[in-house]
Each structure stands twice: as C-alpha cells, then as structure tokens.
Specification:
This protein is an alpha+beta fold. The chain folds into three domains: 73 residues, no CATH class; 276 residues, no CATH class; 44 residues, no CATH class. It starts with 23 loop residues before the first helix and ends in an 8-residue tail after the last helix.
Length: 442
Amino acid sequence: MPGDTGHGAIRGRTPGPEVVPVTPERERRELDAAIRRVVQRNACIGCGLCTQLDTSLRLELDADGFLRPHRSDAPGVVAPDARRQFERSCPGCRVDAARPRGSRRDATMGSSFGVWEAWASDEVVRRRGSSGGALTALHGWLLDQGRASAIAAASVGREPRRTVPVTILSKEDALAAAGSRYAPVGVLADPALASCDAITGKPCEISAIRSLGSTARSDGPAHPGDAGGPLLLSFFCAGTPSQRATDDLLARLGVGADERVDDLWYRGRGWPGRFTVRADGRDGSLSYEESWGEVLGRATNWRCKVCADGVGESADVVAADFWRIDDRGYPVFTEGPGSSALIARTRRGLEAVLAAQAAGAIVLRPITMSALANVQPLQRNRRTTLFGRLMGSRLAGVPGPRYRGFRLWALALRHPRQNLRAARGTRARLRRAAAPTTGSAP
C-alpha cells in the first residue's frame, strides 16, 4: 500500500539491511573500544572528556603517574552517539585549528583579535598568580560582575600533593586556585562542569569541550562549548608531568612519601616563583629552573610531546608567560613582578578582556604576536618541528592524533632540516622505548 514503511514495500527495490537498535550497552562497548585504542597509542592526556559522555567512567592514576579512564562499579548514563562524539572531540583522536572569521593568524601562535602584555591591577592577585595574575583577575571580575556564578578550574586537593578539579564560586576561591599546577588533573571530569559559566583548562581540555559542543546531537541537550555556552579560558602549556615527578621533587626536599604535606605550590607567590612545600612545620623550595627544568619538564606525557596546540587556540581568552629574554633569546627566570600575555582568540574573548580592563581588573599594554613568539621559544620551536616528530612517531608504529588546519606541513617546508632531525630522533627514541631489555622474557 502507498505509505507502507515495511521492507520491500516499494516495487523494484530490495529490502534494506535490518536496523539494529543502538542500546546503552552497545554504545558503552563501542565507547570503551574507542577509549582503549587511544590509551594503547599512548595518546590519552587524561582530560576527562569521556567522563562527560559516560558518567560511570572515572579518571585514575596509572603506574606511570598519569590519569587514565576506568569504568567504576557505580551505575551511570551513557550519552547517545557517545563513540562518535568521543572520536571527534577527544584530543587523543583529533584537534582542529581555530580560525575565527576576521581574526589575524600567526603560524606558531595561532589566531587572535588582540594581544597584550597584562597583569592584575590588584598587587596581591598579581603576586599570587604564576605570571601576573591576569587569569585570576579575570576569574574574580567574572564573578563580581555576575557574568559567571561558577568557574571550573584546577587547584590543590585535600592532599596537597594532588591536583584536582574545583569549582570557583568567589574571589577568595579564585585567589586560592591561583598559580600553575604541574601535575595530572582532568578539569572535564568535574561532575559540576555543566553548571559552570566559564571553564579554565589546559589547551587540550578546551579543544575537547569546544569540539564536544560542535558535534553534539542537534536534538540533544546543550554541551559546554556551544555558542553562547561557558566562556573558555586557557593558558600556554608545555605539557602535563607525571604525578611521580612531584613525588621526586618532594624527595629532593627530604619529604617522605608517608609524611603529611600541609601546602604545596609549583609557581606563583612571586614570578616565576619557586616550587615550595610546607611539611612538618618546615618549608623547602626549589627554583623554577630546578623544578621544571630538571624534573617536571622531563616527565611530561608522550601525548604532550606531539601536541600541535600548546597555545590554546580553541579558547576565547588564553594567557601566557611574557618572559624577559637574554641575548641568546632564552627566557630569563630572575624573580620580579609578573607579567602575562593575554590573547583574545574570539570576538567574545575580545569583549571580555576589554571590559575587564575598563572595570580596572587588569592592566593592558598592546604587543605584537611576533613579540610574544620571540619570548616563547619552546612553543614556537615545538610547532615548527611537529610535522617531523609526527612522521617519526608514525614510522615507529605509533600514529599521533589527527591535526587539521594547523598547516604543519608548510612549517616543515620552511624548516626541512629541523624536521628531518626531529623525525629521526623521535623514531629512534620510540624504537628504543619499545625494545626489550637484556634478560627480559621473550
């Protein structure tokens, strides 16, 4: 009959394949398989995105000191089409360059509507922050002006050795959360994330949550990262060190594994600030060069070493250290008043930065993107040679994430020798890491 929807109802057409309903159990199995592929490639960064797609997933530290997703025994809800959303949003699978219409584009520093040297006008906030306190000042201003009632971020946990997701509800909370945390944390694993009006996270976390918003089902609920959703804030990131690196720093300072730690901060309380621990009524500290240069920076996640976006391209606003440099072009770590660089990546970010300046929360001085690139040699060089490292990784049998829109090949053509060396070095390191040691089992 006309209008019949049964198989073979229309003459001349063969029946189509039987449609198998996608049950939550099947969706969960497919999501688990997709997560397993990312973890096996050592591409998981522990951002917590997958916990937003399935509430029975939790992040736990693995034997190497990095966060990885694990399924808990608690009942949970899996999102419709979770696997597809995961594969299009997980930074271990894919990251897209952001190119907002009307923005200016720098090959290594990304797109922008404005770039400034910046610092908090409040001297207490400026000193407490890692580099001028600009993000902390923005947090306080957003809450004070009613633009946000809750901000997702990371801070020290009840056990000060650990870094955990937090929800900032006041200026006091913002000040308490000031300063860098060089340890594993998944901001996107915060159960309160959906109720936050702003999110501050690592570039990979911000990329993931913005991508999740753009790939969400049109008939489903809004996700963080949707247009008109939370303001997305980030910072330049050189990588996430293992939790074991923090333990190593504490051991250097004579703090035992079972000893109670009262407070711990990696930077801030001066610029660039010292790694400092308070335990058993005594303080111990190491300089930034000793803590990051000798320990933390050498213990970063493998996914961080092949990251195309350490500069936070997906954010609305991103902050960075605005280092002073020596005659060789290397950052100078002499203590002094902190300065941030602020980049407005979107028109929304531009409006927020200028409004915060008008309200007196931050001080701005315009700079050029090339001036920022000059004082960020690690980020500039990492992107310049990333094509080579990705090729070396692939040749060693470890394919990295897909990066779209970054034009890494164009940078490689401009710097062929550096990329060739990077490819050879990466391939050799990965093969050595995979080789069995003498006396190991076959």
